[in-house]
Amino acid sequence: MFINFMLVGFGAGLGAMLRYGISVFVKSKWKTNFPYATFFINVTGSFLLGFLVSSALGPDWQLFLGTGFMGGYTTFSTFKVESMELKWKTNYRVLFSYLGCTYVFGLAAAFVGIMMGV
Fold first, then answer.
1. How does 79-106 read in b/e, with b if 16+ C-beta sit within 10 Å?
2. From CA 31, how far away is CA 21, in angstroms rounded?
3. CA distance to 32, 34, 40, 49, 102, per residue, from 93 (Å)
4. Partner of 32 at 20 to 30 A CA spacing, among 16, 54, 88, 95?
5. Residue 87 in 3-state DSSP?
6. pLDDT tens digits along 38-55
7. Which InterPro entries does the entry mention (predicted)?
8. Sign of CA dihedral 87, 92, 98, 99
9. For residues 4-30, average pLDDT
10. Which residues touch 112 (CB under 8 Å, ≥6 apart)?
11. Is there a contact between 8 and 68 (Cβ–Cβ < 8 Å)?
12. How confident is the model over 68-105, as pLDDT tens digits?
């Protein structure tokens, strides 16, 4: 049981570090109201998790990569906070674009990932 916690924790740490690195890089390159960093992270995370859960990886790899790494990499809470910030700024055009694109592209990416993992 202890090894499972270690697999998840180590994977989550690596995923969070990658998420942070991507976020810093994207925000330094594109100054815009649209939260491209979180959008990119969550859509690529949807694809990767879809691929992982449909692949033939063993349970240790599923814990490390699926629960740990992807749990640390993707960021549902940031997505929601950024959405609320756009609402508070009454930037409804960007808000609805962000919400719609994240859900549509996220679902499509997960579907493609699952199909590729089979």
1. beebbeebeeeeeeebbeebeeebeebb
2. 16
3. 13, 10, 19, 29, 14
4. 16
5. helix
6. 999 999 999 999 999 999
7. FluC (IPR003691)
8. positive
9. 97
10. 47, 50
11. yes
12. 999 999 999 999 999 999 999 999 999 999 999 999 99
Cα–Cα distance for residue pair 89/55, rounded to 1 Å: 42
User: What is the predicted pLDDT for the residue at 53?
Assistant: 93
Provide the pLDDT for residue 118: 82
Can you tell me the distance from the alpha carbon of 4 to that of 30, in angstroms, rounded to the nearest whole number? 38
Cα gap 117→57, rounded to integer Å:
10
Binding site members: 71, 74
Distances (CA, A) of 89 to 79, 84, 85, 100: 16, 9, 6, 18
Residues 6+ apart with CB under 8 A from 72: 11, 12, 13, 14, 15, 16, 17, 19
Tokens of 42: 């969550």
